[in-house]
Amino acid sequence: MRWIIRLVLAVVVLAGLFVGGLFLLPADKVAALVQDQVRSATGRELTLSGRLSPSLWPEIGVATGPVTLSNADWSDAGPMLAAEGLSVGLDLKALIGGQIVIREIVAQSPRIVLERAADGRANWLFETGAPAPETAGAGGEGKPARGFTLDMARVVDGSFVYLDRAAGTRTELAGVDATLAMPSADGPARIEVKAALNGQPLSATAQVAQLAEFTGGAVSDLSLDAALGGARLVFDGRSGLVPLSAEGAVDADLSDLRAIFAALGQPAPTVPGRQIGVKGQMRYTPQNTLHLREGVLRQDGNLLSGSADLALSGKPRLTGQFTAGALDLTALTGGGSGTGAGAGGGGGGGWSTAPIDLSGLGALDAEVTLAAQSVDLGGTRLGPTRIAATLTDRRLVLDLREVQAHGGRITGNVVLNGRGGTSVGGDLTVAGVAMQTLLRELADYDRLIGQGDLRLQFLGSGGSMAAIMNSLSGSGSLRLGKGELRGLDIAGMIRTLDLGYVGEGAKTIFDGITASFTIDQGVLRNDDMVLAAPLLTATGAGRVGIGARTLDYRVVSRALSDSGGAGGIRVPLLISGSWANPRYRLDLEAIARERLELDEQKKAIEEKARAAAKKAEEDAKARAARELGVEAGEGARIEDAARRKLEEEAKKGLRRLLGGN
């Protein structure tokens, strides 16, 4: 900004020349001398149009008509400076004493264009022209320039335009009303500005310890209090203009993001909460990087402590490490309780078809870590949480290093991809969690109660939650310990073959469940579910429509007749319908088929038993005949032959006893 000081000095010279030549030189001669001085100081052409008007009271000074200062020869943006008029007032007593005391300088409706070319050239860097002739004093000798003081410099209804041809951006500061007070040329200065930055109201007050050094490229102490819309920035530290740098304490209220991003010409991101701020030690470097140390980020009642680095050249890139105590992010989730599952086990309205907008992921690249003691998401309260977020070209990867939730631990990663569409994927390991609350949040299903482990890999794409759920693919496995299945009493249904054992209050208590599954096009398929319960076992297979929120599942239960697991009744149960209103029915066809098979098996067994009994009887009779040594004649029975044989043997025994032959 040294050119501004040079221009001010040129105007002062103009006033001095007018005083000296008021009665000696015509106005056009004085204007020519001023133009020579400006050309010498800047290498640019100053054009003074209209009449130069001197004044002697109440203070000595001069006013001009329209004024323009030419731009760099490579620019096509018009004059670098164009004003409707300039006026300057000097302290006559000080001037007579050899001092320049400027009471007031006023620029009426100036338009200043600052421009950086695509190759890096800047129009505010002047090529100094040929030296102008020195003005002679009373003795005809040149005198060195003296210091000056400036009581007040004012810009009325001005505008500043900054054109960055390399970045293709245009920033405009309109309606500028500014004042500058500088008691001495090498001392402090106070600047006050009110304007509109790209349509947003801006006000600022700055105190510079050494304005001359500051505008000349040196670093000076600086305090700044600026407001943009409803946002505010307070800075106290050191800063320099060439190159631009700053370091010091900063306290910023960034709640009015709409105004901030509108001023930057960017759409405002949707950020939850009403109060957003940052405080800490800030450093901005000539390499266009911003660094925060000992930082505290505020979002409503949340406080995050840590450090961050933001590179602004090209696409912004943020790196940071933050820690927090208890975080309340209910504003992010709308404060609801998950997806609103009712007692029936799931909402009946289906997945949301509202468009998912991930365009905000393209605003910057980032690599940030967060460690929090707890996180309240509205429907879910997480315990100690450690997460690393990496955002690269609209692809966000959340590395869940440790998340304590639902009484267990979740690790893995989740990916949100906004490149050329919307997709979401993940690879999660869940250990020892309460399945009811987990499944309620993941799938709007709350009938399964118990602690268990879950392994899940998934991928879905689409512009809404409904589209993503209908496109899901993946695989996983589930293992539960003791628990219960709400809404269904399998044991009671087996005992009575009565479908009335369903609904509110009905439940199946189990010792464990295991299952594996695959997911394709939003449909989960499982064929190896095993449920173990007291005096009951069950196997299951079927489909679960995650996208359609439907069930088509078959459970085959067996009531055990003893504690050893033997015997029992086998009953197949069909489960269909929606998650919200499932329908249960016995597989009567299968039951009839199995009963027919049992009857046929029973009949075959009975026939086989009769044949075996008959054969055994025949074998016994034949064996008896052989042992008795008799043969049955035709038409005679073996019993008759045996009786005759016994009679003969009895007669022989009697004769031996009587001594006969």
Automatic annotation (TrEMBL):
<feature type="coiled-coil region">
    <location>
        <begin position="588"/>
        <end position="618"/>
    </location>
</feature>
<keyword id="KW-0175">Coiled coil</keyword>
<feature type="domain" description="AsmA">
    <location>
        <begin position="5"/>
        <end position="213"/>
    </location>
</feature>
<dbReference type="InterPro" id="IPR007844">
    <property type="entry name" value="AsmA"/>
</dbReference>
<feature type="domain" description="AsmA">
    <location>
        <begin position="406"/>
        <end position="528"/>
    </location>
</feature>
<dbReference type="Pfam" id="PF05170">
    <property type="entry name" value="AsmA"/>
</dbReference>
<dbReference type="GO" id="GO:0090313">
    <property type="term" value="P:regulation of protein targeting to membrane"/>
</dbReference>
<protein>
    <submittedName>
        <fullName>AsmA family protein</fullName>
    </submittedName>
</protein>
<dbReference type="GO" id="GO:0005886">
    <property type="term" value="C:plasma membrane"/>
</dbReference>
<dbReference type="InterPro" id="IPR052894">
    <property type="entry name" value="AsmA-related"/>
</dbReference>
